[in-house]
Design goal:
The chain is α+β, with helices and mostly antiparallel strands and 130 residues long. It has 3 helices and 10 strands, in the order αβαββββββββαβ.
Length: 130
């Protein structure tokens, strides 16, 4: 059995948006927290914060809606535990012609495709979000 916590987090955010929930609570990890901070910065969710004390820390996420529809329309996990997908700086993906974002795990941290293009780094493409 293979676990994919990033995919689980993204799908839970998407499903909570479809169910019109205001917030979700997930097990905490630094990688999930970094991805959630990018989603806050890009305007897909309202807040992401670490709650509780170890070993029961949680990631609390409040969702963002526009006209009773979730701002996050869809998500596609690209790099999976069974097949990692790496790109160099010349082949960084564009999601919907720049309307969405790709989240990239680089040697300089987790960032969007636009930030990676600016810094001139490639890495593992985690997901596309639009």
């Amino acid at each position: 059995m293979v676990n994919d916590p990033i995919a689980d987090m993204l799908i839970q955010i998407k499903n909570a948006g479809l169910a019109k929930r205001s917030a979700i609570d997930l097990p905490f990890s630094r990688m999930k927290f970094e991805v959630a901070k990018i989603l806050v910065k890009e305007g897909f969710i309202n807040t992401a914060e670490k709650t509780g004390i170890a070993p029961r820390t949680r990631l609390s996420i409040t969702l963002k809606y526009l006209d009773d529809k979730s701002v996050m329309t869809d998500v596609k996990r690209i790099s999976k535990p069974g097949l990692r997908w790496y790109v160099d700086k010349k082949n960084l993906p564009r999601v919907l012609g720049g309307m969405g974002i790709a989240i990239i795990s680089t040697s300089r941290g987790i960032m969007t495709d636009r930030e990676a293009r600016k810094m001139g780094v490639g890495g593992e493409v985690l997901c596309h979000i639009w």
